[in-house]
Please model this.
Amino acid sequence: MSRPEPVSRGAVALPAEHGGWGLLGEPLLLALVLAPSRAGFGIAAGCLAAFLLHHPLKLVLADLRRRARYPRTGLALRFAAGYALAAGVGLVAGAAFAEGPFWAPLALAVPLAAVQLGYSARRRGRLLVPEIVSAMALAAAAPSILLAAGWPTSTALVVWVLLAARSAAAIIYIRVRLRRDRGQGGSAAAPLVAHFAAAAGVAALAALGHAPWAAVAAFVLLLGRACWGLSPRHAVVRPRTVGFQELGFGAAATALLALGFLLR
Model:
């Protein structure tokens, strides 16, 4: 009788999708650069643990839907419990040192994360709606860290809007870019309109004094990246390379946002 294949702990503990790391890393990096604090690092640790919780919890829910128990099920449940405990500890530590209430963005992110988890448990997490909803939930880490450091609510909300707009436009772009690179077609209209709208919205916020003009430069940079990446002249590269390029553009946009808010 053949033995069952051993379950990979890494495959259960860590998400296979690499894009999520950037969608979480940019808000955490921006917020901790703008407002480093003990509360912020605690909240960041809690948000990281909550991000890691999603993958094993998705596996557990998927197995429950099938009414089956696999060798991975118990391991996924243990990882989910550990991540949930770590998330709770991080958020409690953040609350202990916070200079102001910071729960509102996280509370708003919970139903967004629940929607994405529901799609993922049904193997539909790669659809556009759950990906954008997930990005909006991950971006909530930044305003929470800023609020815990005593930043004004209005500024924290603007940061959340900027990060959510950047993530949503990037997701639409990457999906179309990969399809076109594979020769599967796809119109460039949606990602370009999304980037134009995001840049115009940020320019309006800057003109009203709610956002730094460096944020406009960041979104113009991303718009240029989308125009080139969807043009017939761009070089077709592997999806992994596209992902690394996007991490680089995301880091550059985050640096411009940080510089703009710090100079204000």
Remarks:
- The chain is about 80% helix and 0% strand.
- The mean pLDDT is 93.
